[in-house]
């Protein structure tokens, strides 16, 4: 169902009147974790000022250590929804459990399935059974074929509003948190008809690499770029080393515009 061979036309996913996959590049930005209404609102104001429509934020955080901040759960989704309503933004947030899919429909405009859950087949099937766009992230050690099959799981249940997100894979290289597999972008565009995003934050884990990798992603044909932004990354409850603060984010967007790759 997701194969380009069978369905040559691009899938365009429309989220709150904003199209993804129509040839115009988009940005998704927001904090790693939702921490408070005020924190999300500060980021939302910056998005609004830059004309960006897609607000991300994690409410259910799949953390490597059980002792790290696990997210605010449903309360976090409520914060995202309230802020997004005030600033007319669309909400993208990760859901980690099939039992939470129905509940999430009230709060989010896009269900994110994270790297750690790319092969959680019950979650994929649950997301495939509802009428809500899904952003599916590539697994930490998933091949492109496995990634495409995960999308197929969602589509097979009836939901064709799927967007793929390359977020780096695990390799022996330690200079970056993960290795951004940039060639996955044109391969996914060739093999599927789905929009393809690149998450520059989790792939690099390095603030200094966000701009060059975002440029590379757009130059190679990604439909959009995801990046994390926090009002004060130094005190962020997760991913403190790699989130941009708001002035850095504004600089990031203006540099992308200047590059001519993002309009
Ligand atoms: C995220 O986007 O919040 C996240 C946890 O990313 P990933 O699933 O790609 O690690
Ligand atoms: Mn993060």
Automatic annotation (TrEMBL):
Molecular function GO labels = 3-deoxy-7-phosphoheptulonate synthase activity; chorismate mutase activity
EC number(s) given by UniProt: 2.5.1.54, 5.4.99.5
Any idea which UniProt keywords this protein has? Coiled coil, Isomerase, Transferase
What is this protein called in UniProt? 3-deoxy-7-phosphoheptulonate synthase/chorismate mutase
The organism of origin for this protein: Evansella vedderi
């Amino acid at each position: 169902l997701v194969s380009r061979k069978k369905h040559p036309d691009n899938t365009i996913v429309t989220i709150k009147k904003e199209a993804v996959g129509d040839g115009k590049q988009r940005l998704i930005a927001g904090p790693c974790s939702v921490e408070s209404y005020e924190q999300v609102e500060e980021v939302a104001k910056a998005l609004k000022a830059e004309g960006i429509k897609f607000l991300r934020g994690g409410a259910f955080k799949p953390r490597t250590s059980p002792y790290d901040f696990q997210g605010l759960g449903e309360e976090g989704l409520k914060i995202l929804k309230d802020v997004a309503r005030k600033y007319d933004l669309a909400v993208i947030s990760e859901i980690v459990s099939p039992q939470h899919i129905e509940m999430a429909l009230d709060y989010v405009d896009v269900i994110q399935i994270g790297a750690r859950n790319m092969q959680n087949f019950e979650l994929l099937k649950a997301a495939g059974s509802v009428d809500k766009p899904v952003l599916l992230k590539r697994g930490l050690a998933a091949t492109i074929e496995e990634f495409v099959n995960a999308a197929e799981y969602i589509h097979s249940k009836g939901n064709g509003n799927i967007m793929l997100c390359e977020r780096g894979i695990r390799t022996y290289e330690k200079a970056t948190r993960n290795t951004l597999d940039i060639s996955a972008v044109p391969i996914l565009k060739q093999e599927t008809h789905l929009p393809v995003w690149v998450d520059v934050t989790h792939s690099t884990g390095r603030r200094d690499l966000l701009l060059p990798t975002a440029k590379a992603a757009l130059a190679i044909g990604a439909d959009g770029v995801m990046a994390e932004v926090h009002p004060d990354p130094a005190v962020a409850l997760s991913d403190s080393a790699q989130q941009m603060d708001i002035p850095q984010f504004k600089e990031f967007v203006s540099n992308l515009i200047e590059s001519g790759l993002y309009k």
